[in-house]
Write a structure and sequence with these properties.
It comes from Cyanoptyche gloeocystis. This protein is about 75% helix and about 0% strand. By secondary structure, it is mainly α. The N and C termini lie far apart (about 55 Å).
Length: about 450
Amino acid sequence: VDSGALTEIVKNAKGTDESSKASLAQDKKKLYRMALNRIRTIMISLVLFFHCAASYQQDSAVFFLVQNLMRDWLVYVNAILGDSGWPMFVFYTLAGYAAYHSLRVRSVKDFVDDRSLRLVPPIFFGIFVLEAFSIYLMYYMGREYLYRFFRYESFLDFYLKFYSNCFSLMISECPYPRYVIGIYWYLIYLWVFCMLGIPLFQLWKKYPSPRLTTQKAKLLTVAGFLTLPFLVWGFDIAWYFSKDFSFLRLFSESNFYEYFFFIFFGFFLAWCQDAHEVLLDCCWYFVGFSIGMMPLLCHAHLSGLKYTRQFDIMLLLNVFAVYMFLAVWALAHKTLPYLPPYLAVPFDYIADRAIAIYVLHYVVQCCVLVLLYYIRGDSFLNHNTLCHLLLHYILSYILTLALYETVFCWRYTQVFVGMLRVSDIRPLSTPTSSVAKSKPARALPA
């Protein structure tokens, strides 16, 4: 073969190799995008289940409505899903991951407009319309805290008096501010974090993603495995001593520092793909460690240790929460992109409506609970809690989706549940940063 032909063969081989690498990278991005989208289905389903289950617990400060008996398995649900808080770690990490890719293809103005359009209207609609009806149902069902402090005759009487006093009545015995905000603290935090994080996001994305050697990857794995739980524990202690200050009292059960950290953790995983790969490679370590800790955590709850607020118990909760979060995150990337079609279709359907389900589900599950109570009467209080809970959960899920598809699927009602995007109203402008111009990634759903 002459030198010219040999040179041509080498060039073709290099071109093929580079194109195959690019194709592999694109395929990997598609799989990641699919996993991150479908993990929303799992998380929103768990949140709905937790809120339904919390309605049957005597010690639930916000959600309890009717149940007179305390079941051990409900304590396990509260320990694994509630007090540990790892589902919210997943939600905020998803938000940070999405923010990175969104800022690569959008200007800052479009990013602010989109997040504000998707979060601010649902906050006001949720607090002043949906939450108002939920609180009235609690009062109507004889919720002790509300009945002790308030007397109302009709829903209109309740609405006018309750919300006219929402910032003047701050009684330590009454969870008044917590009731006013309800489940919509998550949307408030998310909007605040996105706005506060923009300067750092803009600065951070200008730096190229580092390439990690095998040795550095192993070092990062060990360091993260050992230090991340203690870092989150430190945030928990800081929150414990500062949560009674100023406006933070409104969010007394929601750790501002932890969640602010995890939105940047998601941004970091999107920025440094090698670190993300390392995390996924450790999937089964995280799964084994979190499963191994579940009996210890449940034993601590059954022993009443969570009420002491001792810092060692807080450490136990945080270690479990971090490893459970990492296990779910990694396991989702290993399994969810490869679902069969009969599972992939409903997963994608629910994932696309996750924020709407979050906004609507609580008032729906309250209505279902009242309906079941009136159908079953006193037997609903003390017998067969598991069957009632499963029926309550399934009906709430179905009716939430039905409410969205019949009332909030239209263009001008979607804004109330966070489903209307800026791109549905006007064309988006392109970002000016040089990093964003080079091979922009597709923005993930918020």
